[in-house]
């Protein structure tokens, strides 16, 4: 009787070990190989005034606004915000951010203001640490180079900045 | 003497609290390789946003700096060849409703003119901004002021690589360094040789006597493109309990399964 019990036990153990093998042999579902980006927020420098000497206004990736030169920051107008992009990729994937060295904002008077994009919450090369369905939030800031009143007279200035997310 | 008060310019930058004019974009796959007898490939793009959007598709040329940054170029570097001269693709502009997808077809042409080795260009997808009635918002312009509108658009680029004839690559890892400050940072140089780019993954393993091995770092998809021979790479390692970075060793393994190129290097921490 005891022998029979032992045999039964061995049989059950064998069954369990086989079923384990079957589970191990199962293939993992394929990992999606894609990249997805969405724009969540624009870069906004808020309101300020510029005197004769010109200067710069900087908004970094944390949304902190600073200035140099003949600039007075005002708390009018819209909120000061860095640009925000949500990037979805597989965890552990490396993504590189690239863009031109500076962007031109063209005035209706024919003059130009230059904008340099120079601040990134993730650095220009970043490794995704979140799951594929969780976005990597990438905040981007920059600096406006403001000339004197002759170089940048009153008027409407507008421009588009293009940020590229490079896959390797 | 100045007969006018200090010249004040009001710079009013308008906020765009809600962005609906831009599409969200998904691109699949993340890279395209023409190998052997491949004549055509497909890339899928999908509008994952909530508004109809238009995307422009073009080729863009990059060289990679030693630190891995992409630098846009017009003319190839010495030893670099562009694929865009040998590829036809369509469509070049796509309007997609929310959750709509489109296949972009890439077809190789003039292959007779290609010689052995590797060609590379980058397919570039850009969300085209809508020409919205910005003028209305600009009416807030002050008499003596400046108004500025900055629109932000994004693009996604994926490499398109064509390999002809016999290609191969070898890699080596050198100059491993570990900096432990707030978090451990590993830096190293990847050296590539041969007529093929590499695209591989890093696995970093911590080893110490009497302790099980622990994987403390994984990064996927690090490339070194032809004609580059070197890439400097820095990446953070995980901080795991019971890991003492003053003893034991760190093994770094780089593997490109497709190019069959791999390299391992060890950093002794003593």
Automatic annotation (TrEMBL), chain A:
Top-rank taxon: Bacteria
Pfam families associated with the record: DUF4402 (PF14352)
Protein name according to UniProt: Uncharacterized protein
Organism listed in the record: Christiangramia flava JLT2011
Automatic annotation (TrEMBL), chain B:
InterPro entries: Ig-like_fold, PapD-like_sf
Protein name: Uncharacterized protein
Organism encoding this protein: Christiangramia flava JLT2011
């Amino acid at each position: 009787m005891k022998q029979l019990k032992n045999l039964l036990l061995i049989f059950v153990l064998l069954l369990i070990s086989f079923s384990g093998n079957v589970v191990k042999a199962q293939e993992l579902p394929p990992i999606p190989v894609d990249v997805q980006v969405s724009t969540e927020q624009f870069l906004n420098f808020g309101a300020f005034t510029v005197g004769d000497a010109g200067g710069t206004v900087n908004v970094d990736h944390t949304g902190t606004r600073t200035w140099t030169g003949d600039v007075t920051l005002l708390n009018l107008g819209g909120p000061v915000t860095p640009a925000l992009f949500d990037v979805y990729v597989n965890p552990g994937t490396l993504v590189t951010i690239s863009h031109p060295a500076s962007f031109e904002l063209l005035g209706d008077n024919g003059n130009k203001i230059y904008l340099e994009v120079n601040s990134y919450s993730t650095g220009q090369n970043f490794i995704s640490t979140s799951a594929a369905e969780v976005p990597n939030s990438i905040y981007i800031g920059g600096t406006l180079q403001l000339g004197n009143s002759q170089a940048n007279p009153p008027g409407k200035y507008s421009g588009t900045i293009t940020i590229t997310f490079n896959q390797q | 003497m100045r007969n006018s008060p200090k010249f004040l310019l009001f710079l009013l930058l308008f906020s765009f609290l809600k962005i609906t004019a831009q599409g969200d974009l998904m691109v699949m796959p993340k890279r395209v390789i023409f190998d052997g007898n491949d004549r055509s490939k497909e890339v899928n793009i999908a509008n994952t946003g909530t508004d109809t959007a238009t995307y422009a598709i073009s080729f863009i040329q990059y060289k990679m700096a030693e630190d891995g940054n992409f630098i846009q170029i017009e003319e190839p570097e010495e030893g670099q060849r562009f694929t865009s001269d040998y590829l036809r693709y369509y469509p070049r502009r796509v309007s997609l409703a929310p959750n709509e997808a489109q296949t972009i077809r890439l077809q190789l042409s003039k292959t007779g003119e290609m010689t052995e080795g590797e060609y590379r260009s980058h397919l570039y997808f850009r969300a085209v901004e809508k020409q919205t009635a910005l003028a209305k918002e600009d009416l807030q312009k002050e008499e003596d002021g400046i108004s500025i509108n900055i629109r932000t658009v994004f693009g996604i680029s994926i490499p398109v690589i064509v390999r002809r004839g016999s290609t191969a690559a070898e890699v080596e890892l050198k100059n491993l360094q570990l900096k432990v400050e707030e978090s451990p940072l590993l830096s190293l140089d990847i050296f590539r040789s041969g007529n093929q780019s590499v695209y591989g993954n890093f696995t970093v393993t911590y080893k110490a006597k009497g302790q099980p091995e622990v994987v403390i770092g994984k990064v996927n998809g690090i490339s070194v493109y032809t004609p580059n021979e070197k890439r400097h790479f820095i990446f953070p390692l995980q901080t795991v309990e019971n890991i003492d970075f003053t003893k034991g060793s760190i093994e770094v393994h780089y593997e490109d399964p497709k190019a069959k190129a791999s390299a391992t290097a060890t950093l002794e921490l003593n």
